[in-house]
């Protein structure tokens, strides 16, 4: 019989035909906006009814953001023109060095003749590029044409060309050497250098050396002219000896007067290792210093040297360098030169030596010379720079670059008269600083000149007059620089990149001067450099603020003070952004001055004073309490514009340190606006209620989506709430704790408005007769639109926690007043929203429930007809009327409802449908018993309806569909369809499922855990079980322990008919028994893989007097133990222990009552009765157990 019923069910399932309309509709992808798009013409009528109250205020933050965007774009892209001629002229100030030194006629002639001689006898390497002599003469005459006539010029040139040339001098600095060869036993050397001039390049061999002392005199070197393999020179000079070094440093200067042709002469330098003549014993004593094989060789060499009679040159040669004199450029030559060895065949490296070489001239004593060379050089610099400035077409930026002719003259004069680097740098600085206020010289050039002066500076290397002159120059430059900084906003606009570059180099120049020893010694900055720059910054920003305040506020009438102050604040914000972005880093990098902090604090102080004065008088004389209508809108708009501007200004404070922020009074600016916000919220609540009434009054049906209908009232109301939220959000109230009162007010206003709207819509629906019982019930567009409107407005509540910053308020309240206060605030806000949400959902569900209840009579009629249909008729034919009825109504609902509302109605209809089917089954229970085909029809009906409402995952979720009522009916039908053996198998399968779920949860059972090992021995055909231990079992004795033992039995019994239960030994007085006992059961693999096949463990507490107490039961599935699916080596040691949770009978599975009750009802089935009786006894013992 059972097989026949199952076959019938499979046949019907294969041929089942379900109407597809529901699934097809739900598969369509639909877009539903979380926020309603305001695109209806009707919204204009509603907003115009209150003068666009919410629209005007919601636009204020956007206007403020737009203003910032325009300023940012201007700051990044706009081109600020360079300073005009008037700006440059206005920037001139009196400079203490502004006059060029006035020379007498004799001094000018003396200087002129001197420079002509420099030009004529210029020095330089062969091939070095120079302007022609006539070009240099012409340039010099242009400079001095006011003092020297052409005839005088020609006469002096003729005299110089006929005169004897001055002596040429080679200046050599032997700086250091590196990587020399070690010649001593210790691996080091005692290097010294010998150098001289070779008139020709015929012989470039090393000079002959002789044993010498550490003083390094050259007399000994001139006594060995004829030595084989060497070369001697009458003018040899040598360095000192550096002991035990391979990287010696000398830094010694030498001077050679050249009495030979420069174009053929060479400079030659040798490097030697000095060796004192020692005895053999002294050399042997050094044997302890030998480190390697090379040291041994050196030791032997010294022994041989010390024993050589008549040895005259014990020094070791290290290398030499030859430099042709006509390759030395006019500005000198400084470089590392590689040392060459004696033999050209040697490939080993001998090291390098660093030399500085420079050519100069030595003139005879010129009695006519009035000015010193240093004075000539300084005056020459003054005249040349002044000459170049005078040639500029117009006042403007000049990079200070001199023409090649000027640089040649200055360089040749410095070289020929050996003007030191310090004096050259001094002369250049003095000349340029004199002209710095006469034209806009690029401060980058000044920085370069200052860097050269700083690097070449040597304390007290200048004369007293020169130091005084430099001090006056520095003082004048500092005065000029501070003047520029006090006008920084005008002279260095923050968006003008060239101006910002000039500002940076101006600060770098001041930093250079400040870092010099000269500045500290002469106290150029009083009290210090940073202090005077700070004062200049403050003066600059104060002047800028006063200028803007006069322009934008003081010139406006009293009635526009608030609006004009808002405009000033916005202008300040724009400038602050630019100064922070473009200027702050310059001061921070150069002087570590927090520029933006200083500027911000100065502006904040003055702005706060103006705001306080303005708003105090505004509130006292022109408050908002008694103002309504258009006048209120105008005044409040101006106030909130000022608030937003101040909010943005205070936002810049995040770039200040915490300590600096704490002292800012302007951070309390919001206190001036507290009453204005309170007033606005009161007005907004009233205007919102009026707008809701107006929106419903002007309600029109309009398509929001292609298939879903709304009315315009939902759009109007949701938009109104969004504008309120957005306005508060953009206010960004700085006092988070204090904002709780306002947020609570906004939340309450929106919630009140939403519930009010839902009630108005519901009342309107009631007035249309929706709840009237008279007449036939039909699902109409009016019904769908009503609940869609309520749902759409309800959705607008969900974003309040985020948009209104509830979490931020809670954290601030917890910080200020403790965790309890923060939680109470959060609970209060959530209670408001939850209450409103529940009220609106209740209204929707009140409408939705009416739909299901109105459809119940039809469901009852169709379901009765389904069960009363002929038992052999097709399920499709029997259920078809019901499915057509559902399709027709679902299509209407689906086309007209939002998905959330559609799901609500779908769920309510499902509950009503399943409930009605359950009632019919209960009423026909006696008739159904003994008719398996009827239970098959009930089961198929449940599956068809579930598939219909599930609609391929597009309808209700399975968790909703398979509610308790559905599961009860499904289990009831399936249990009555199956035979006894299938029910018993299903029972054990569910027991195994319960054990697996408990194990995967990771939680230990309250009855304890049993640990086992199990495998199948394929050779002996035995199921081998090792009962390992148990833990945390329930104590059953008064001593707090138990005497546990375990009964093992294979289930289901009809699968293992020959198997006999086995029992373990009793473990006394413990709740953690260690059994360590093995058992074997003769079984086959096919038996172990049978559905529900398992090993049933029952633990008891042994009792001598009374019946043994039940401890718990558990099950082990046999189909997946080692040896069943895969081979196993038949060893417990290779097995992992399996923990099994001990459970109470039947309490752990949902379908057990149905399965057992079904078996109990089969009174004529012996197997069913025996199984039910055995489980009942076990359940009874489990309930009796303490």
Automatic annotation (TrEMBL):
GO cellular component, one term: secretory vesicle
UniProt-listed InterPro entries: C2_dom, C2_domain_sf, MUN_dom, Munc13_1, Munc13_dom-2, UNC-13_domain
Subcellular location: Cytoplasm; Late endosome; Recycling endosome
Ranges for region Disordered: 208-234
PROSITE patterns: C2 (PS50004), MHD1 (PS51258), MHD2 (PS51259)
Location of the MHD1 domain: 640-761
SUPFAM superfamilies in the cross-refs: C2 domain (Calcium/lipid-binding domain, CaLB) (SSF49562)
Keywords (A to Z) from UniProt: Cytoplasm, Endosome, Exocytosis
Alphabetized Gene3D superfamilies for the sequence: 1.10.357.50, 1.20.58.1100, C2 domain
Example of a GO biological process term: exocytosis
Domain MHD2 span(s) in chain numbering: 876-987
Domain (C2) ranges: 150-307, 1006-1132
PANTHER family in the record: UNC-13-4A, ISOFORM B
Family note: Belongs to the unc-13 family.
Protein name per the record: BAI1-associated protein 3-like isoform X3
UniProt source species: Acanthaster planci
Gene: LOC110981893
């Amino acid at each position: 019989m059972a097989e026949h019923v199952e076959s019938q069910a499979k046949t019907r399932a294969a041929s089942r035909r379900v109407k597809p309309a529901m699934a097809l509709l739900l598969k369509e992808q639909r877009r539903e906006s979380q926020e309603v798009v305001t695109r209806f013409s009707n919204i204009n009528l509603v907003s115009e009814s209150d003068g666009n109250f919410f629209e005007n205020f919601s636009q204020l933050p956007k206007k403020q953001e737009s203003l910032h965007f325009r300023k940012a774009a201007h700051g990044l892209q706009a081109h600020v023109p360079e300073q005009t001629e008037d700006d440059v002229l206005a920037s001139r100030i009196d400079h203490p060095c502004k006059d060029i030194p006035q020379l007498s006629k004799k001094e000018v002639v003396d200087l002129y003749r001197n420079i002509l001689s420099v030009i004529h006898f210029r020095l330089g390497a062969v091939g070095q590029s120079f302007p022609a002599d006539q070009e240099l003469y012409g340039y010099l005459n242009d400079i001095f044409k006011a003092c020297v006539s052409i005839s005088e010029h020609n006469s002096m040139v003729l005299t110089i060309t006929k005169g004897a040339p001055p002596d040429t001098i080679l200046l050599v600095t032997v700086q250091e050497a590196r990587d020399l060869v070690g010649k001593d036993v210790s691996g080091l050397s005692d290097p010294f250098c010998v150098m001289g001039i070779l008139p020709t390049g015929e012989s470039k061999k090393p000079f002959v050396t002789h044993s010498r002392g550490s003083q390094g005199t050259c007399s000994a070197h001139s006594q060995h002219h004829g030595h084989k393999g060497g070369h001697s020179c009458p003018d040899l000079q040598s360095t000192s000896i550096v002991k035990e070094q391979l990287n010696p440093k000398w830094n010694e200067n030498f001077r050679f007067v050249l009495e030979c042709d420069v174009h053929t002469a060479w400079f030659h330098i040798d490097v030697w290792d000095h060796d004192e003549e020692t005895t053999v014993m002294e050399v042997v004593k050094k044997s302890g210093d030998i480190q390697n094989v090379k040291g041994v060789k050196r030791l032997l060499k010294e022994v041989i040297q010390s024993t050589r009679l008549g040895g005259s040159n014990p020094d070791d040669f290290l290398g030499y360098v030859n430099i042709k004199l006509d390759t030395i450029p006019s500005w000198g030559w400084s470089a590392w030169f590689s040392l060459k060895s004696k033999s050209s065949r040697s490939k080993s490296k001998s090291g390098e030596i660093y030399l500085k070489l420079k050519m100069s001239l030595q003139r005879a004593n010129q009695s006519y010379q009035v000015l010193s060379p240093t004075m000539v050089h300084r005056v020459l610099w003054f005249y040349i720079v002044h000459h170049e400035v005078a040639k500029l077409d117009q006042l403007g930026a000049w990079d200070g670059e001199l023409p090649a002719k000027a640089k040649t003259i200055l360089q040749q004069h410095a070289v020929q008269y050996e003007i030191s680097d310090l004096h050259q740098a001094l002369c250049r600085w003095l000349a340029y600083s004199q002209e710095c206020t006469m034209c806009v010289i690029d401060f980058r050039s000044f920085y370069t000149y200052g860097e050269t002066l700083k690097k070449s500076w040597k304390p007290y290397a200048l004369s007293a007059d020169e130091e005084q002159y430099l001090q006056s120059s520095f003082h004048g430059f500092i005065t000029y620089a501070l003047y520029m900084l006090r006008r920084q906003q005008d002279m260095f606009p923050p968006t003008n990149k060239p101006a910002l570059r000039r500002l940076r180099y101006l600060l770098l120049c001041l930093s250079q001067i400040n870092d010099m020893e000269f500045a500290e010694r002469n106290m150029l900055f009083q009290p210090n450099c940073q202090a005077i720059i700070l004062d200049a910054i403050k003066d600059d920003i104060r002047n800028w603020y006063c200028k803007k305040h006069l322009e934008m506020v003081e010139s406006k009438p009293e009635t526009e003070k608030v609006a004009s102050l808002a405009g000033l604040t916005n202008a300040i914000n724009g400038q602050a952004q630019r100064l922070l972005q473009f200027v702050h880093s310059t001061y921070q990098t150069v002087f570590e001055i927090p520029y933006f902090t200083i500027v911000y604090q100065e502006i904040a102080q003055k702005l706060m004073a103006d705001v306080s004065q303005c708003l105090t008088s505004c509130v006292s004389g022109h408050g908002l309490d008694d103002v309504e209508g258009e006048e209120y809108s105008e005044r409040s708009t101006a106030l909130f514009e000022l608030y937003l501007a101040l909010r943005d200004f205070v936002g810049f404070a995040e770039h200040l340190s915490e300590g600096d922020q704490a002292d800012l009074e302007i951070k309390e600016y919001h206190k001036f606006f507290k009453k204005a916000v309170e007033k606005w919220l009161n007005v907004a609540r009233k205007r919102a209620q009026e707008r809701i009434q107006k929106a419903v009054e002007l309600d029109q049906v309009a398509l929001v989506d292609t298939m879903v209908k709304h009315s315009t009232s939902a759009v109007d109301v949701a938009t109104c709430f969004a504008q309120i939220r957005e306005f508060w959000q953009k206010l960004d109230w700085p006092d988070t704790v204090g904002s709780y009162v306002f947020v609570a007010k906004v939340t309450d206003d929106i919630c009140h408005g939403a519930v009010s709207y839902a009630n108005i819509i519901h009342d309107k629906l009631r007035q249309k007769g929706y709840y009237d019982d008279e007449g036939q019930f039909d699902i109409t567009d009016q019904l769908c639109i009503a609940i869609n409107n309520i749902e759409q407005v309800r959705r607008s509540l969900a974003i309040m926690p985020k948009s209104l910053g509830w979490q931020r308020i809670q954290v601030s309240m917890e910080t200020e007043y403790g965790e309890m206060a923060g939680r109470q605030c959060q609970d209060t806000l959530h209670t408001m929203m939850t209450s409103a949400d529940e009220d609106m959902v209740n209204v929707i569900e009140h409408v939705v429930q009416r739909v299901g209840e109105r459809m119940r009579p039809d469901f009852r009629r169709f379901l009765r007809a389904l069960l009363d249909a002929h038992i052999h008729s097709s399920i499709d034919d029997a259920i078809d009327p019901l499915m057509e009825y559902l399709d027709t109504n679902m299509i209407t609902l689906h086309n007209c409802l939002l998905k959330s509302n559609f799901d609500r109605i779908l769920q309510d209809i499902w509950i009503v449908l399943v409930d009605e089917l359950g009632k019919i089954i209960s009423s026909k229970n006696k008739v159904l018993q003994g008719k398996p085909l009827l239970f098959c029809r009930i089961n198929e009906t449940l599956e068809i309806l579930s598939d219909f409402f599930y609609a391929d995952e597009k309808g209700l979720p399975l968790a909703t569909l398979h509610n308790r009522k559905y599961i009860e009916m499904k289990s009831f039908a399936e249990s009555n369809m199956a035979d006894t053996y299938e029910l018993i198998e299903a029972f054990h399968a569910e027991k195994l499922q319960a054990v697996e779920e408990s194990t995967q949860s990771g939680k230990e059972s309250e009855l304890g855990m049993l640990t086992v090992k199990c495998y199948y021995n394929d050779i002996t055909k035995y199921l081998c079980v090792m009962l390992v231990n148990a833990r945390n079992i329930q104590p059953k004795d008064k001593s707090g322990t138990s005497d546990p033992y375990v009964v093992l039995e294979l289930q289901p019994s009809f699968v293992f008919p020959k198997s006999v239960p086995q029992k373990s030994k009793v473990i006394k007085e413990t709740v953690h028994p260690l059994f360590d006992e093995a058992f074997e059961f003769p079984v086959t693999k096919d038996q172990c893989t049978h559905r529900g096949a398992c090993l049933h463990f029952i633990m008891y507490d042994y009792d001598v007097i009374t019946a043994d107490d039940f401890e718990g039961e558990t099950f082990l599935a046999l189909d997946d133990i080692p040896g069943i699916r895969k081979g196993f080596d038949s060893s417990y040691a290779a097995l992992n222990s399996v923990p099994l949770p001990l459970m109470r009978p039947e309490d752990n599975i949902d379908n057990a009552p149905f399965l057992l009750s079904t078996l109990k009802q089969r009174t004529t089935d012996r197997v069913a009765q025996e199984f039910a009786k055995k489980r009942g006894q076990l359940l009874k013992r489990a309930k009796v157990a303490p």
